[in-house]
Specification:
- The complex is a heterodimer of chains A (260) and B (555).
- By secondary structure, chain A is of the alpha/beta class.
- Chain A contains nine helices and ten strands.
- Chain B has a two-stranded antiparallel ribbon.
- In chain B, helix 3 crosses helix 9 and helix 18 runs antiparallel to helix 19.
- Classes of the chains: A alpha/beta (260), B mainly alpha (555).
- At the A-B interface, helix 2, helix 3 and helix 4 of A face helix 12 and helix 15 of B.
Chain lengths: 260, 555
């Protein structure tokens, strides 16, 4: 479904590759996590995959369509949710989703049914006819997600989708990511949240300095799930002082003091 | 006090770009802007000198009246400028929310921003009002004392409008908040303001030019002069300002002005000082206030969906509505006034045959203004530029849709303009100087130029877009492409207009062979040149589009 081979991207005026020989494949029905610290190159790779920025060499294919040679076919099978949740704020939620649906040539029956369903899933019925400008961070993220899903993309790409969301919204999105993959679609997302990745993803890749350092099987593999933090910190600069241990309970006042 | 000064420094730094990195590109951009600004400023100074000459050293001197008018115009203009500056910088400024997080109170923000507005106003006043007094002094052979007095007088003249605008900004901001999302009403108001302002300006200019052309057939008749004198002497408080500078009841007038200024200063201090904080808070709250619009889910073809989105984004923005829609809608009226003025002067001096050439010049200038909006076609995507990259629609198709919008809007505007000009100036009253053939030729030349100028504007924007948008999603400032494209359009207008005007009278003969016989030959040549230009620029736009578009870097 999604194939990235030997992707290299160097920004002008940089003397290093922001994406350095990145290769991986994500199959149908798979949820794939993309981990890495800030500036590791996650967003660069995602922007190359989605066609937002050009790359120096390598290939990206979405459902068999090369993003450079057949960009329209590739983009037709892709849905993208950016990390900055930027949407056209002068439109209402419904206008925006309809605009995107028109671009993907979604039939009226399909868009009405899907929109009704998504509005319910993401609890956005009350706001869909309001101008997006008035939406909260989470609401903008949700309308962005609905617009990205309105054409039922085979490959759904999300850049740090849970950032700044409340637990309810995070749960709604996680549930739908699982549902989308159960339908045989691919979900590819970047994240900083190791707990969510270990529970949600079939596999995950760890990126550091533009290179993939590890690809781990997670689903059905408790060993890898348990050692994800350790592997992540080792791959991205060492575990020293970074593995979190549970905080001990506060000592009650008077504890340890002898009664007189 | 320190907080106020720190905030003022920040304001000045952000507004005047102090501390920005100097690059060869920024130097060139600065020099281009400086050149255009100097051209406009020269036109202003020459215009003022011309009008002052008529009033101050004409047959019937109107020195005192001139000073009343200058004081009045200066106070009114400063009030408008200051009110706009207050609304923008104090109430609608995006940094209020940020500033309120720091240990500063509403009054400190008010004072810091007010001082900035005052400095801004003072600069405007010294650039535009002070030279008028210098010109007056020169024309009246005033002594050194006049020039020395003019400096503190110019400063004094800024106090009243500054404080008045502080008060006026309060209802203005409330009214603006009230009609904020009524886009059709805003557009209608903008059209009324543009048309009435332009009509008034053109009527005044026509009067002045007619006077200059024929002093015996003057608009300054005895009755009119008496009226001017009567009105000037009773124009409170502007007559008091004129008294001070003219040397008439100086002390008494100055005392009255001091009292008036003191009253307004106190009013502004108490009213604005007290209400500014709640209004700023309300403005922050209302910044995200929006409208609700129930629409049906509807399927549209891709072309229409893109076109509609482009239009809606312009319509729902005060800035873009003004820059584009209001200009396009009012262009026929403005073209009528310009043509009326130019034709009456041209007709009187060289004959009616000049009218078609003048019409062509005026129409192309307005096309240039309307189409210059295309210079921000890509930049206006702002933060959502990435959408144009991920949608399954080719870049060529997206650009074609934008080009189509500019073409349709400008075509409608030119069509109405041609009908208006043809029916008014083609009539017997104007000696049938513009025929159907002329208007058809002007229309088709304009059509090719609309395509050529739009394509050229879009090429420049694709090459160097600027995605610097405000909180409202509008571009913070028009990029340099706009001025470059307006300049190119004006050059074309002058060349085309002059060619049509000159060859209406004098045929072009080389070695005994007549190359250009009359204006019809000019039309044919201009049609061919324009068509070639349009074809070349459209090809240039689309042939390298994918490569150029891919290079665009957004946030």
């Amino acid at each position: 479904m999604l194939s990235v081979k030997n992707l290299i991207k160097r920004y002008p005026n940089n003397n290093f590759n922001s994406a350095d020989d990145i290769s991986f494949e994500v199959g149908a029905g798979e949820i794939f996590g993309f981990l890495g610290k800030n500036g590791a190159g996650k967003s660069t790779v995602i922007k190359c995959i989605t066609g937002i920025i050009p790359f120096d060499s390598g290939t990206v294919t979405i459902c068999g369509a090369d993003i450079l040679k057949s960009p329209i076919a590739a983009k037709r099978n892709m849905g993208y949710v950016p990390d900055n949740h930027m949407v056209i704020e002068k439109l209402t939620g419904r206008e925006y989703v309809n605009y995107v649906a028109d671009l993907y040539r979604v039939s009226l029956a399909d868009r009405v049914e899907r929109l009704r369903y998504f509005l319910q899933v993401f609890s956005l019925e009350h706001a869909v006819d309001k101008q997006i400008k008035s939406y909260s961070h989470g609401m903008k993220q949700k309308i962005c997600i609905i617009a990205a899903l309105i054409h039922e993309p085979k490959v759904w790409i999300l850049d740090e989708p849970m950032m700044g969301l409340d637990p309810q919204s995070t749960a709604d999105i996680i549930n739908y990511m699982q549902e989308h993959s159960r339908k045989g679609n691919t979900v590819f997302f970047s994240s900083h949240n190791l707990d969510i990745v270990k529970q949600l993803c079939h596999r995950t890749a760890i990126v550091d300095k533009g290179k993939i350092t590890e690809i781990l099987e997670l689903a059905g593999n408790p060993t890898n799930q348990n050692r994800l933090e350790e592997v992540f910190f080792k791959a991205t600069g060492g575990t020293q002082g970074r593995l979190i241990t549970p905080t001990e309970p506060l000592k009650k006042s008077g504890e340890g003091v002898k009664d007189e | 006090m320190n907080s106020i000064l720190t905030m003022l420094r920040l304001e000045l730094k952000s507004k005047f770009g102090l501390g920005k990195e100097i690059t060869p590109k920024s130097v060139v951009s600065f020099l281009i802007n400086l050149f255009f600004s100097l051209v406009i400023y020269t036109v202003y100074i020459v215009g003022v000198y011309f009008i002052a000459g008529i009033m101050v050293s004409g047959n019937v001197p109107l020195k005192y009246e001139f000073l009343v008018i200058v004081s009045g115009v200066s106070v009114v203009v400063q009030t408008v400028v200051c009110t706009s500056a207050f609304v923008k910088n104090l109430y609608y400024s995006g940094d209020n929310e940020l500033l309120l997080r720091f240990p500063v109170d509403g009054k400190q923000i008010f004072f810091a921003k007010s001082i900035y507005v005052y400095i801004y106003n003072l600069m405007i006043s010294f650039v535009f009002t002070f030279p008028v007094f210098v010109i007056y002094g020169y024309l009246t052979n005033a002594g050194a004392a006049f020039y020395v007095t003019a400096v503190p007088f110019t400063i004094f003249l800024t106090v009243l409008p500054f404080c008045l605008s502080n008060l006026i900004a309060l209802p203005v901001i409330n009214l603006t908040n009230l009609i904020k999302n009524r886009f059709a009403l805003i557009l209608a108001l903008l059209i009324i303001i543009v048309v009435s302002g332009f009509a008034l300006y053109m009527l005044l200019l026509k009067g002045v030019l007619e006077y200059a052309q024929n002093k015996t057939q003057t608009i300054l008749t005895e009755d009119f002069l008496a009226q001017i004198r009567g009105v000037a002497s009773s124009m409170f408080p502007f007559n008091l300002y004129a008294n001070v500078l003219y040397g008439n009841k100086v002390l008494l007038s100055f005392l009255y002005l001091l009292l008036l200024n003191a009253a307004v200063v106190l009013g502004a201090f108490f009213a604005a000082g007290k209400s500014v904080y709640p209004i700023v808070l309300k403005s922050i709250e209302r910044g995200s206030e929006s409208f609700e619009l129930k629409t049906e889910d509807k399927v549209r073809p891709v072309f229409i969906a893109l076109l509609r989105k482009e239009y809606v984004l312009i319509f729902r923005s005060l800035n873009y509505s003004f820059q584009y829609l209001a200009m396009a809608i009012t262009a026929p009226i403005m073209i009528y006034f310009c043509n009326d003025l130019a034709s009456s002067i041209g007709d009187a001096s060289v004959g009616g045959r000049i009218v078609p050439g003048l019409t062509l010049l005026v129409v192309i200038i307005f096309i240039t203004i309307i189409v210059s909006f295309a210079s921000t076609a890509i930049s206006r995507e702002g933060n959502t530029f990435y959408l144009t990259k991920i949608m399954p629609v080719s870049y060529k198709y997206q650009v074609l849709v934008k080009l189509s919008l500019y073409f349709v809007v400008a075509t409608l505007s030119v069509l109405v303009s041609c009908i208006v000009v043809g029916s008014v100036f083609g009539g017997e009253k104007y000696g049938n100087n513009v025929g159907f053939g002329d208007m058809a030729a002007i229309f088709f030349i304009s059509e090719f130029l609309i395509v050529a100028l739009s394509a050229s504007a879009m090429i420049s924007d694709i090459k160097s877009p600027s995605f610097d948008v405000s909180a409202a999603g509008d571009l913070v400032a028009a990029n340099k492409n706009v001025s470059v494209n307006i300049f190119s359009g004006c050059v074309i207008a002058v060349v085309y207009g002059l060619a049509a005007m000159v060859f209406s009278y004098v045929p072009l003969v080389i070695n005994g062979v007549t190359i250009i016989k009359n204006i019809n030959t000019v039309y044919v040549i201009l049609l061919i040149v324009s068509a070639l230009m349009a074809a070349g620029l459209v090809l240039s736009l689309f042939l390298k589009l994918d490569k150029r578009y891919n290079k665009i870097k957004s946030n």
